[in-house]
C-alpha cells in the first residue's frame, strides 16, 4: 500500500448540497442533519463544497463554516473530501489548509474558472493546493463547466505526486475514464462523475463515484453498488434504469439542485433553496415534485425489501 489508504474513497460518495435558512444564509443545523441522514443511510463519504454544494457561490468563510459543521457531525465516521477550488489560487490554498486543520480526509479542486487558462497555469494552481497540505488530493475534471480539458499526459504527471490519489471525472465519456484509469496506474483512483453512467463507469474501471443526485436517493446508489460488487449485472442494470428515470425528471426542473432540494423537503430534510443564479422550483412544479417523490419512495422501498 502507498502512503494513503485508498479504500476510504472507494464506493458511493454523496456530493453534499448547499444548506440555507429562509434568508439564504448557511444553516449549520441543516448541514448537520443532512450529514447525519447520509451517515444513517450507510453512505461511505461526502464531497463537500463541490458543484452540488454550491461552493463556487459561497464566500470562503461560509465554505469553512459548512465543512466545520460536517466534520463536527460525521467526521471520523465518514470519509470527508473537501472541495476547495476557488477562482484564485490564494483562496483555494487557504481553504485547503483549513480543510486539513479541521480533519478532512482529502481535498479536491476544479481548475480556476472564468479565465481561459493554459495547462501550465492550471497545473501551478493545483500544485499550490497539493503542496499546501499533507492531505491526499483528488483532481476534479468537469470540462463542460470549467472549460478546461485535462489531458492524460497532465494527469500522468500529476499522479506521480504521492499525494495525488485520484481524479473525479465528470465528463460523459467512459472512454476517457478508462484512459485516465490506465494513465494513473494501479494505485490511482478514478471516481465516476455522471450519475446516469454509474454502472458504465464502474464497468470500465471506476473505483466508485461522487455524484450530485446520490443525495436524493442514496439507497438506490448503495443498492446499485452492491449489485456491482455481487456481480449481478442484470439487476444492476435495472437499478441504473430506475435511477435514470429519477434523474431525467430532475433535469426538467428550473435547476437540478432546486429539484433535489424540493425532493429532500418531502423526505423531511429542509435545506432551503439553491442560491441564485441557480433557480428554485416554483409552485407550478410542485405536482411534478410530488409525483417524483411518490415514484422514488416506491423504488427505495423495493431496494430495501
Ligand atoms: C455536470 C455535473 O454537475 N455533474 C454532477 C453529476 O452528479 C450530475 O449532476 C448528474 O450526473 C446529473 O446529470 C457531478 O459529476 C458533479 C457533482 O456532483 C459535484 O461536484 O457536486
UniProtKB/TrEMBL annotation:
Keywords: Lyase. One of its GO terms (biological process) is N-acetylneuraminate catabolic process. The active site is at residues 140, 168. One of its GO terms (molecular function) is N-acetylneuraminate lyase activity. GO terms for cellular component: cytosol. InterPro entries: Aldolase_TIM, DapA-like. SUPFAM superfamilies: Aldolase (SSF51569). Belongs to the DapA family. PANTHER family: N-ACETYLNEURAMINATE LYASE. This is N-acetylneuraminate lyase.
